[in-house]
User: Fold N-acetyltransferase domain-containing protein from Deinococcus marmoris.
Amino acid sequence: MELRPLTPADLPAAAQTFMVTFNAAPWNEAWTLESASTCLSDLLATPRAACLGAWEAGQCLGAVLGHDLIRDRGVSHQISEMFILPLAQRRGVGRALMTRHLAEAESRGVGSVHLLTARDSSAEAFYSELNFRRARQQIMLVRP
Ligand SMILES: CC(C)(COP(=O)(O)OP(=O)(O)OC[C@H]1O[C@@H](n2cnc3c(N)ncnc32)[C@H](O)[C@@H]1OP(=O)(O)O)[C@@H](O)C(=O)NCCC(=O)NCCS
Assistant:
């Protein structure tokens, strides 16, 4: 398996993997190749984006996309998307990707990392394993 930064040329393969992953259980979302490609393309174009993909035999096994944010006391990193193809899950690919992504963030001087995910989900179990914890003070507000 190879880990390398995602580039615009990787978008078709990464969008296919993103769509298949999030349209499957437990997320059961409704992505099309077009919406998935636009979503990832926008994230790649975000200022201070950092995006890493995992590849095997020309196939995108998964990726993590985020960007650095300038805050009052330093730089924080927001992870916007993280996905591993269902057939490749539970093989350590997510751990390898996130470990590299976090090490690279640290080397850029990032002081904290945050993300949103579903409560009590397999994703939360994955992030907990990597020492993420629930925020103590912040909550997410939505409407309607
Ligand atoms: C969550 C996800 C990124 C994890 O990637 P992965 O490559 O399957 O995870 P890894 O194999 O590296 O797992 C590392 C550790 O995380 C934990 N973990 C991973 N998946 C888990 C699951 N389904 N249930 C419980 N714990 C899990 C385990 O502790 C695991 O170590 P172990 O296999 O030695 O027990 C992947 O399952 C995925 O893409 N899911 C669908 C999309 C998603 O939920 N994205 C995140 C939403 S923001």
About this structure: The beta strands are 2-5, 49-56, 59-71, 74-84, 110-115. The longest helix spans residues 93-108. Residues 21, 82-84, 89-95, 117, 122-123, 125-126, 129 surround coenzyme A (CB under 6 Å). Residues 2-114 form a domain with the Aminopeptidase fold (CATH 3.40.630.30).
